[in-house]
């Protein structure tokens, strides 16, 4: 007779130690500078164990000692802070008109930030993937030249991404079933660090929750303001991933069934009305005959200039877009009850004109408008929010116990 042992199994010693190393590392990340005694008191680990774990993390150059503090009862204590200077995590953000690469060290300090124009609207999937992989290779080489070890690379894409890194659909790039993770892996020569691909909004909201004006918020939504509009969602302190990893496709809710066609094949989607190309078409109809725009920044700058000069057509268009955006935000607010909704990307320079109608629409449509609720604000992060979030996902893996080897 064959029997199967069920129930809790004894943990391997190496697993327990890796878990405890991660506990100490996370505590220092949130409380530095701190002492070994403070770590022991707060985590429940005994002092001898903490001393051994700290010695391991110092040897790995994940922590360092930073002197003594005398502002305490008893003997001065040696304080600890994050080190991580020999390491870097890389994130790449893909948009229809630009690519961004960001590298951060273990402490979250930015060590590289590049933005490159990118003809995503006019490139085939193979051409686009080659350009993304080339930028990744350059970023890796720069990090290596600075004598840092790459801990991982994550690419953010405006589309539906499977857990194994296949971009199932990215309407605004014209992609279907592009195995981007494998392409980047091959371009990097099968590196010894993990390569991942995720939705750009999912990554951007992680950056906001770590480094934005509302860092630490337990209920936060980030709206990408690019050609497409996606929502990254933090709910009760956790990223909302959904059944297949495809949540937050707010850009494809129908605002006007008789509205303009959307790249997804439907009509009247939010992004067809309030995406940045829709805004440009409304405010700058004269550019329609210029063909595909491969760099949207000059047009966005012109929209801002006209709004500042109180151009009636520009103000009317931004008012209409703000109301449509407010409808989408109100749906999110009523479903998810966030503390804050952050507008990112190209919405940031347009925020002075978009926020008032968004807030008015939210007040009109939100359940219980007088009992408090979501604020709507512009992001303080730059266009690299998803790239920064991509790099931050690598740090999350380190904090969870995937520590670099000695």
Helix and strand layout, with pairings?
Elements: H1 13-31, E1 34-35, H2 36-43, H3 47-59, E2 63-69, E3 77-82, E4 87-94, E5 98-104, E6 110-117, H4 125-145, E7 149-157, E8 160-161, E9 166-170, E10 175-179, H5 180-187, E11 195-199, H6 200-211, E12 220-223, E13 231-235, E14 238-239, H7 270-274, H8 276-283, H9 297-308, H10 312-336, E15 340-343, H11 347-365, E16 375-378, H12 385-399
Parallel strand pairs: 4-7, 7-11, 12-15, 15-16
Antiparallel strand pairs: 1-3, 2-3, 4-5, 5-6, 8-9, 9-10, 12-13, 13-14
Structure characterization notes:
The structure is a single chain. By secondary structure, the protein is α/β, with parallel strands linked by helices. 41% of the residues lie in helices and 20% in strands. It has helices at 13-31, 36-43, 47-59, 125-145, 180-187, 200-211, 270-274, 276-283, 297-308, 312-336, 347-365, 385-399; strands spanning 34-35, 63-69, 77-82, 87-94, 98-104, 110-117, 149-157, 160-161, 166-170, 175-179, 195-199, 220-223, 231-235, 238-239, 340-343, 375-378. Helix 2 (36-43) crosses helix 3 (47-59). The protein is globular. InterPro entries: ATPase_NBD (IPR043129), HTH_MarR-typ (IPR000835), ROK (IPR000600), WH-like_DNA-bd_sf (IPR036388), WH_DNA-bd_sf (IPR036390). Belongs to the ROK (NagC/XylR) family. It comes from Catellatospora chokoriensis.
């Amino acid at each position: 007779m064959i029997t199967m042992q069920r129930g809790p199994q004894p943990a391997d010693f190496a697993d327990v130690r890796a878990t405890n190393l991660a506990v100490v590392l996370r505590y220092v990340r949130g409380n530095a500078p701190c002492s070994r005694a403070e770590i022991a008191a707060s985590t429940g680990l005994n002092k001898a164990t903490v001393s051994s774990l700290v010695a391991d993390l110092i040897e790995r150059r994940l922590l360092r000692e930073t002197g003594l503090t005398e502002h305490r009862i008893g003997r001065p204590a040696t304080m600890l802070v994050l080190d991580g200077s020999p390491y870097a995590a890389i994130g790449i953000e893909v948009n229809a008109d630009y690519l961004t690469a960001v590298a951060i060290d273990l402490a979250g300090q930015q060590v590289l930030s590049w933005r490159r124009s990118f003809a995503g609207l006019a490139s085939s999937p193979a051409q686009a993937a080659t350009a993304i992989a080339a930028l990744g290779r350059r970023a890796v080489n720069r990090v290596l030249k600075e004598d840092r070890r790459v801990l991982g690379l994550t690419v953010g894409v405006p589309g539906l991404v499977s857990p194994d890194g296949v971009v199932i659909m990215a309407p605004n790039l014209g992609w279907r079933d592009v195995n981007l993770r494998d392409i980047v892996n091959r371009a990097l020569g099968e590196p010894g660090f993990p390569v991942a691909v995720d939705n750009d909004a999912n990554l951007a909201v992680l950056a906001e929750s770590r480094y934005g004006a509302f860092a630490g918020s337990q209920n936060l939504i980030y709206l990408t303001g690019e050609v497409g509009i996606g929502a990254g969602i933090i709910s009760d302190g956790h990223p909302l991933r959904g059944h297949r990893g495809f949540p937050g496709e707010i850009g494809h809710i129908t605002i006007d069934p008789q509205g303009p066609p959307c790249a997804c094949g439907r009509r009247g989607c939010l992004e067809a009305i309030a995406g940045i190309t829709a805004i440009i078409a409304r405010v700058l109809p004269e550019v329609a005959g210029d063909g595909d725009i491969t760099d949207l920044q000059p047009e966005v700058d012109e929209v801002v200039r006209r709004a500042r000069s109180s151009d009636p057509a520009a103000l009317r268009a931004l008012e209409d877009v703000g109301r449509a955006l407010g409808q989408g935000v109100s749906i999110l607010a009523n479903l998810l009850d966030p503390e804050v909704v952050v507008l990112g990307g190209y919405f940031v320079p347009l925020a002075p004109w978009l926020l008032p109608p968004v807030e008015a629409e939210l007040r009109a449509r939100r359940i219980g408008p007088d009992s408090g609720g979501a604020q709507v604000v512009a992001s303080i992060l730059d266009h690299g929010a998803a790239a920064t979030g991509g790099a931050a996902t690598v740090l999350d893996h380190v904090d969870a116990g995937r520590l670099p080897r000695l």
